[in-house]
């Protein structure tokens, strides 16, 4: 056990991007496949190189997602067992599954999230983006871009897709933040007396059980209806799997996109030349969005477990060992990106790993990019000026995290009709 190992996974490290990246840059140079033994957490290999993350993710029979999908403390693992009566998981969604189940469950909604189907959302997204930028204008020139815009806009989109009514969005937002931000004192439940979010998961299950009943009785053109009425190998979808499917779509679908939307704006504010270039040349927006996503890398890690011994950079990964794939490090790998610590809106190609890679690659990646594009398509032409109005701060979490606050001051004009 070393201080470094503790620091690598300590949620507080994630509030300071510069220190975080300095730690991982050292690992990439000195020990890219690093045996890590943090206090209170079962040991694992920390994987910091872009090529190694791809090599592992590509081989999804050799490196599986179950039983250790994301990092948990030993205390959390024990609490989950107590709560579930012996199981190691609270939810069983796509990210906890391996084949053959993973492929079958992913197919249920995959077509829905592909570009041809998403085209139908384009007009709705543009209207929603306008609504949010109008709201910024109505706020009179100052706002917290995170809590006023970046968290609500993708939330609205994913809830529309899922079929959750608007009045329930604050509940969904609270539950998601509790699930992902439970290590951040500002976002976790005040009455938390255990190490895991059992109350949050229970509340999610209660909510989605009612939604399932409603969609079974009266199917609509939404993803909730696909999940509620799904058949797996001729049998109705299991309750745990249905609940977990809603949760992964509801949660993965907005916190991540919020983080990239806000992280992208901060990067533009910190690099005024890039903002000016983008405003002068809006055709660069698609590559700028990829760069915003690389730059912010909202999903910090996923884990895999080896099903056989494997050699990686001269180290032997033993069958049963876990690997911690640190995406932000892969996305600053000097061997893959020129000037990885420069934010460049015209970076092409941009082979970032922010959406993962291989069989589990993000199902919502096209949707996420469409959403961010719609917002910036509306915002950029209306901006007369924009600057930071205070110190930005970050969520303390080692799974999904990003900006917690981004105070900005701006002048906006109304778009010509
Ligand atoms: C910028 C925004 C987003 C980022 C950075 C992101 C990132 C990721 C990452 C890293 C993974 C794991 C990939 C792997 O294991 O290789 C993932 C999986 C997933 N994402 Fe996203 N995501 C984003 C937006 C979305 C959206 C909008 C949705 C909406 C449905 C979504 C749904 C999912 C689902 C369902 C999975 C599980 C896929 C599987 O295991 O087969 N994500 N995402």
Give descriptors for this structure.
417 residues; alpha+beta; Cytochrome p450; five-stranded mixed sheet; 14 strands; binds protoporphyrin IX containing FE
Shape: globular
The H-level CATH homologous superfamily, spelled out, is Cytochrome P450
- Report helical residue fraction: 40-55%
Largest sheet: 5 strands, mixed
Each distinct ligand:
protoporphyrin IX containing FE
What does this structure look like?
- The chain has 18 helices and 14 strands.
- It is globular and about 60 Å long.
- A hairpin with a 2-residue loop joins strand 5 and strand 6 (235-236).
- The strands form 5 sheets. It has a 5-stranded mixed sheet.
- It has helices spanning 3-9, 17-30, 50-58, 74-84, 101-110, 115-118, 122-138, 145-150, 152-162, 169-180, 198-217, 223-228, 239-252, 255-270, 272-280, 285-296, 327-330, 365-382; strands at residues 33-36, 44-47, 63-64, 142-144, 231-232, 235-236, 301-306, 310-312, 315-317, 322-326, 383-388, 393-394, 403-405, 407-412.
- It starts with a helix and ends in a 5-residue tail after the last strand.
- It has one domain (3-412): Cytochrome P450 (Cytochrome p450), CATH 1.10.630.10.
- Helix 10 (169-180) packs across helix 11.
- With 417 residues, the chain is α+β, with helices and mostly antiparallel strands.
- Protoporphyrin IX containing FE is lined by residues 57, 94-95, 106, 113, 158, 248-249, 252-253, 256-257, 260, 293, 298-299, 302, 354-358, 360-364, 367-368.
- Residues 57, 94-95, 106, 113, 158, 248-249, 252-253, 256-257, 260, 293, 298-299, 302, 354-358, 360-364, 367-368 line the site of protoporphyrin IX containing FE.
């Amino acid at each position: 056990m070393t201080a470094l190992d503790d620091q690598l996974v300590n949620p507080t490290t994630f509030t300071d991007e510069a220190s975080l990246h300095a730690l991982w840059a050292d690992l990439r140079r000195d020990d890219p496949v690093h045996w890590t033994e943090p206090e209170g957490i079962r040991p694992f290999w920390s994987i910091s190189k872009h090529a190694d993350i791809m090599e592992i993710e590509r081989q999804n029979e050799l490196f599986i997602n179950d039983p250790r999908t994301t990092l948990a403390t030993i205390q959390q693992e024990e609490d989950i067992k107590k709560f579930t009566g012996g199981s190691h998981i609270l939810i069983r969604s796509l990210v906890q599954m391996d084949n053959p189940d993973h492929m079958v469950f992913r197919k249920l909604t995959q077509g829905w999230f592909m570009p041809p189907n998403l085209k139908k959302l384009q007009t709705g997204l543009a209207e929603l983006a306008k609504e949010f930028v109008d709201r910024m204008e109505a706020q009179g020139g100052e706002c917290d871009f995170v809590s006023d815009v970046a968290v609500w806009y993708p939330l609205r989109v994913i809830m529309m897709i899922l079929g959750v009514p608007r009045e329930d969005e604050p509940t969904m937002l609270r539950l998601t933040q509790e699930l992902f931000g439970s290590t951040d004192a500002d976002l976790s439940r005040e009455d938390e007396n255990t190490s895991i979010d059992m109350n949050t998961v229970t509340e999610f299950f209660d909510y989605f059980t009612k939604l399932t009943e409603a969609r079974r009785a009266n199917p609509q053109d939404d993803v909730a209806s696909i999940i509620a009425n799904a058949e797996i190998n001729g049998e109705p979808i299991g309750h745990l799997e249905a609940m977990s499917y809603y949760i992964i779509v509801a949660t993965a679908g907005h916190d991540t996109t919020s983080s990239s939307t806000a992280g992208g704006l901060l990067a533009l504010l910190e690099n005024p030349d890039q903002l000016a270039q983008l405003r002068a040349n809006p055709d660069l927006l698609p590559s700028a969005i990829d760069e915003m996503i690389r730059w912010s890398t909202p999903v910090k890690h996923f884990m895999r477990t080896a099903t056989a011994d494997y050699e990686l950079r001269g180290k032997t990964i033993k069958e049963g060992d876990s690997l911690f794939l640190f995406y932000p490090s892969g996305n600053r790998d000097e061997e893959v990106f020129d000037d990885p610590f420069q934010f460049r809106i015209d970076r092409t190609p941009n082979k970032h790993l922010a959406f993962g890679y291989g069989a589990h690659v993000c199902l919502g990646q096209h949707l996420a990019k469409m959403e961010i594009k719609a917002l910036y398509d509306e915002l950029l032409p209306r901006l007369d000026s924009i600057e930071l109005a205070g110190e930005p701060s970050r969520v303390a979490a080692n799974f999904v995290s990003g900006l917690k606050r981004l105070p900005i001051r701006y002048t906006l004009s109304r778009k010509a009709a």
